[in-house]
Amino acid sequence: MKLTIIGTGYVGLVTGACFSEMGSHVTCVDIDREKIDNLKKGILPIYEPGLESIVLNNYQDGTLRFTTHLAQAAKDCNVFFIAVGTPPGQDGSADLRYVLEVARQIGSVIEDYAVIVDKSTVPVGTADKVRDQVSQALEARGAAIEFDVVSNPEFLKEGAAVNDFLKPDRIIVGADSDRAAKLMRRLYAPFSRNRDKMMFMNVKDAEMTKYAANSMLATKISFMNEISNLCERLGVDVENVRKGIGSDSRIGYSFIYPGCGYGGSCFPKDVKALVKTGRDAGFAPTLLEAVEERNNLQKQVLGDKVINRFGPDLTGRTFGIWGLAFKPGTDDMREASSRVLIRALLDAGARVNVYDPVAMGQAKKEIPAHEQEKICFAQDQYTALDRTDACILVTEWKTFRQPDFKKMAALMKARVIFDGRNQYDPEEIKEAGFEYHGIGREL
Ligand code: UGA
């Protein structure tokens, strides 16, 4: 099949690459010429394991193309994926400017029946707005072309995006016509061969499913973070509690890891947007508001622990931070807990050394210049600990899992570890001569 994907961000690029890998002919369109030129040279705008080789191979085979011209891509194509950004507006709602502009453009280029797929995460009711834009553009051309708008939310995780796309748990399709539903079934057939993973529903249900899924996962995390705070104050080890409750199959082990808060481009944005949608609909979504509030507070927990331990004035102290990305497997720094921690330490007068195996370049782009003056970007994880007062683990990359404690002890000024992701066994750390501070394991 022939597809056009508009937007070569995270979702768009992975979607395009994976469809081409499964035999579809895909053209990815983006208005950013530099991005498109780079993609043609095999330079990807994001770090994502496994994506580069798929892009390179399929580009060389000619099944994956890149262009800035939507009209060119639209020739003989009847499936269009909208995968542009929906950044949060000032009030938390998803900004649909780019989605609606692309819808208008699609309406001005389609030549025959087309299915227009909302792949971006968009609030309930967006498909109707997309439909209006396409209709208006068609009317302006005096063209009477039939089309359908479909909601097909994406559930891939950064760092595991290719695998998640190629082997999805489920494929949600919100379609209000049989014609569109059939076309979507054909399109996804290669991904749904061993077991039927397709779930059809109406468009609004699909739009809501995406927000409900992310909000549920964010709720699990905030719930567990809340429990971890209680555990700290009651002399309980949250890690035992996590295992204890996870063994109940109704609860399960996933997404109940306490830590220093969830980040990334999805959970924070989607929970906010759903709160706004609820409020706009005249409903007070108190649980979702609490999920967000807990998360904002949780991002401050590591900084608070450092200040509890060393006092409010950190002048003359240096801290080594392990991990900057919002989670392992990505260079994404959006809404990362490391940002909140760095700011808190700098505000209290400290200096910080940072190391991340992948996100150093991204960090240099995103951390403001006035903060960078007091930050040393270390060459490796051990250099980051040179003459530091403590090591603070923020992102649980594998390389931090079993460090050389002897080497650390020799380098550091004080032997203190703040474990923001409960990666270490406190006993082992204490035996290695370190003072240990985890999440939900002590006050
Ligand atoms: C999330 C969802 O997991 C995907 O299903 C969804 O498609 C995606 O958002 C999206 O909407 O595009 P992602 O943001 O890539 O994926 O990252 P996750 O792996 O879900 O992690 C999010 C955050 O939660 C990270 O900061 C992670 O450290 C934190 N987390 C996760 C915890 O603190 N505890 C946990 O138990 C799990």
Automatic annotation (TrEMBL):
Q: What is this protein called?
A: UDP-glucose 6-dehydrogenase
Question: Catalytic residues per the record?
Answer: C266
Q: Where does substrate bind?
A: F155, L156, K157, E158, K210, F255, I256, Y257, P258, G259, G263, K327
Q: Say if the entry is tagged with keyword Oxidoreductase.
A: yes
Any one GO biological process: polysaccharide biosynthetic process
Which Pfam families has this protein been placed in? UDPG_MGDP_dh (PF00984), UDPG_MGDP_dh_C (PF03720), UDPG_MGDP_dh_N (PF03721)
Q: Which PROSITE patterns match?
A: PROKAR_LIPOPROTEIN
Enzyme category, top tier: oxidoreductase
What does the record give as EC number?
Answer: 1.1.1.22
What does the similarity note say? Belongs to the UDP-glucose/GDP-mannose dehydrogenase family.
Origin species, per record, is Desulfobacter latus
Pathway listed: Nucleotide-sugar biosynthesis; UDP-alpha-D-glucuronate biosynthesis; UDP-alpha-D-glucuronate from UDP-alpha-D-glucose: step 1/1
Q: Which Gene3D superfamilies match?
A: Cytochrome c1, transmembrane anchor, C-terminal, NAD(P)-binding Rossmann-like Domain
Binding site residues for NAD(+): D30, K35, T86, T121, E158, K269, R334
Reactions catalysed: UDP-alpha-D-glucose + 2 NAD(+) + H2O = UDP-alpha-D-glucuronate + 2 NADH + 3 H(+)
Q: Which GO terms describe its molecular function?
A: NAD binding; UDP-glucose 6-dehydrogenase activity
Occurrences of domain UDP-glucose/GDP-mannose dehydrogenase C-terminal (ranges): 320-426
The record's InterPro entries line, in alphabetical order, gives: 6-PGluconate_DH-like_C_sf, NAD(P)-bd_dom_sf, UDP-Glc/GDP-Man, UDP-Glc/GDP-Man_DH_C, UDP-Glc/GDP-Man_DH_C_sf, UDP-Glc/GDP-Man_DH_dimer, UDP-Glc/GDP-Man_DH_N, UDPglc_DH_bac
Q: Transmembrane residues, as ranges?
A: none
Q: Which UniProt keywords apply?
A: NAD, Oxidoreductase
Q: Does the keyword Oxidoreductase apply?
A: yes
